[in-house]
Amino acid sequence: MRSKVTMSILKKAGMLAGAAALGAMLSTSAQAVELQFFFPVAVGGKAAQTIEDLTNDYVKANPDVTIDAVYAGSYQDTITKTLTAVRGGTPPQLSVILSVDMFTLIEEDAIVAFEDVIEDGADQAWLDAFYPAFMDNSTTGGKTYGIPFQRSTPVLYWNKEAFAEAGLDPETPPANWEEQVEFGKKLTKRDADGNVTQWGVRIPSSGFPYWLFQGLTTQNDVILANDAGNETNFDDPKVIEALQYLVDLSTKHEVMQPGIIEWGATPKAFFEGQTAMMWTTTGNLTNVRENAPFDFGVGMLPAKVRPGAPTGGGNFYIFKDSTDAQQKASLDFIKWISAPEQAARWSIATGYVAPRPDAWETPAMKEYVEGFPQAKVARDQLEYAVAELATYQNQRITTILNDALEAAITGQKDPKTALDEAQAQADRILSAYR
């Protein structure tokens, strides 16, 4: 879907007297900086309407800029369309794309470092204002290529009514892997024929399987890839142990639906009582708040060796094939939309984590959190967060890992075999970047 966000010149001119004033205004408009902005709309929460409202507000306050906001579909759709446009010589001037696609965009020579666009110390202070956990997926080689905006972590949601019915404290989620199994057994319900009517927990394994799996590996104190993006650790014994635990939730402990669990269907399954707990993005927070027909809790993911989760979501990028004026205008828009007031507005509307501490000090955010303290969970989890899996040839590498996870979850391979083979494939691709 495409929305042309422009200033109405004639309406503005109608307020002015004389043809000379109108002519001057038309001349100014003709010199307006035009920006094309790709945005992934297929995400949880009220993203589409909110981003359109924010973009409209910016353009109204900046009549010398026009922004053609192109809603490009899912994250995958957006990076595909962006790369096609880059290779065809018609890239957008700015886009929100997954933070993990940074290495791909660098390799394509498609984006500029923000240090090459900013002009003074105030701009540098702006770069330094974001949460370090989000900047881990935004910088490399001492330069900043992405600005955190649509950022998230996975969190645990639980049905408080189901907890109470199972004899569990509805205010206390499982704190670790063992308790997740223990609680899951109490929460799993079967009918007279032995068919499961409510599962204990649901961890999606489609869509972004590596991302939620990275929650388990982080908790087991192992990192899936190095900071340089050229080496993975898929065959580490701790990674194998994490995958075995994920498989065991279904096959051994019988607290989770067997087979591949759909990402997109998970919130609905939670609302309908098909699962008492679910792992999903904090970007679904507003969706859950508006649609869950029961009281629910939000907590950090259960720990093992340590608590932890990956960060996730999208960054703003500025594209190299733009004029100096377009790059400056893109920077100004990104600075404005990521400022505390706008960041708070975005977070409240969607559930995504406001990516800088000062956004949480705004009156609007304070009021929101006071009435809905669950919103703080993802922010507080940042203390234990790690960078989302990101490498060169990232889509190929994550596909390799996703395929390995699927093979283990569906019983085609044991976890060790699946991950050993995945590591060998990743090594063949990434050795060229070392």
TrEMBL record:
The UniProt keyword set, sorted, is: Signal
Report the locations given in the UniProt record.
Periplasm
- InterPro entries, alphabetized: Bact_solute-bd_prot1, SBP
Top-rank taxon: Bacteria
Q: Which residues form the signal peptide?
A: 1-32
Q: Predominant location of this chain?
A: periplasm
| Pfam families reported for this sequence | SBP_bac_8
Q: Name one GO cellular component term.
A: periplasmic space
The record's similarity note reads:
Belongs to the bacterial solute-binding protein 1 family.
- The protein in question is named ABC transporter substrate-binding protein
Q: Which organism is it from?
A: Marivibrio halodurans
